[in-house]
Amino acid sequence: MKKKRMQITTARVLSNIFLVFIILISVIPFVWIFLSSFKTNAEILESALSIPSHWSFDGYISAFKLSPLHKFYVNSIIVSLFSTAANVFFVGMAAYVLARFEFRFKNAILLLFSVTLLLPMTSLIHPVYMVIRKLGLYDTKLGLILVYAALGLPTTLYILRSYFLSIPRSLEEAAYVDGAGFFRTYVSIIIPVAKPGFATAAVMQFLMAWNEFIYAIVLTNTQNNRTIPVALSYFTSQFSFNYTALFAAIIMVSIPSIVIYILLQEQVVSSLTAGSVKG
């Protein structure tokens, strides 16, 4: 018994050490960039880990002067929000059908989506580029919205399907007995119950759309439609001697995704826990 307790204690200590290590390597870079965004170039070059001697927002002001970050910010918000809404709305209905009904080629469809999860996004650049060109959507926000909604389809499908499988069928059967049709049951019963699943899928989709760089730079060529990740890369040369502005721009890019995840963290965790019951 004593030996078993020692093993459990050792396992807990090791797991706590591992968690602390993960937290440190995740938080320290962000804290370093945050502090550096309030320093001068001289302070950054002198000591990377020191506290700013004078807290100044000059870096944030310079970032907006050196590039139209407000325009890229608006573009990213529009593309991310609309691609997330389209992805969750349409894929949600498909995931519900795949979770609740049996039909021909159902397993083949699921296998197809499983394969797409293994494909690197870069392998689809050329065909996607050609399709967007043919549709006349090159260098448009609509083109990016459609592409991002499609790229997040497999992940959203499996998140929502797993959550739908964890919902008791008795809820739907009771709704059918009361006279509700298929669509009303889905809207009035399934969607409210599956809010954590939808929140998880929406967060994952939003983060992908907000941080995506490759398709944003391939499918756009003007500042009117380029998003924040492309803006950072595009203006790196201007920021090359102004580290304060560069770090300030990075903070402004990172904050929205961090805030959204923090606000929806409980729903994400509960969804992943429920989805692990059935799959």
Describe the structure.
The chain is 77% helix and 0% strand. The chain has one domain: MetI-like fold (Orthogonal Bundle), CATH 1.10.3720. The protein contains 16 helices and no strands. The chain is globular and about 70 Å long. The mean pLDDT is 84. Helix 4 (69-100) crosses helix 8 (153-165) and helix 11 (195-211) crosses helix 16. It has 279 residues and is an all-alpha fold.
List the topology elements.
Blueprint: H1 2-36, H2 41-46, H3 58-66, H4 69-100, H5 106-118, H6 125-134, H7 141-151, H8 153-165, H9 169-177, H10 182-193, H11 195-211, H12 214-218, H13 228-234, H14 236-239, H15 243-263, H16 265-275
Question: What is shown here, in short?
Answer:
The protein has 279 residues and is mostly helical. The chain has helices at 2-36, 41-46, 58-66, 69-100, 106-118, 125-134, 141-151, 153-165, 169-177, 182-193, 195-211, 214-218, 228-234, 236-239, 243-263, 265-275.
Low-confidence stretches: none
**On the 0-100 scale, what is the average pLDDT?**
84
Molecular shape: globular
Question: Major β-sheet, in short?
Answer: none
How much is the radius of gyration in Å? 23 Å
Q: Got a strand count? A: 0
Q: What's the CATH class, please? A: Mainly Alpha
CATH superfamily annotation: MetI-like
The quaternary organization reads as single chain
Helices, by number, come to: 16
- Percentage of residues in strands: under 5%
Number of domains: 1
The assigned structural class equals mainly alpha
CATH fold node name: MetI-like fold
CATH architecture: Orthogonal Bundle
H/E order of the elements? HHHHHHHHHHHHHHHH
| Proportion of helical residues | over 70%
State the end-to-end CA separation.
37 Å
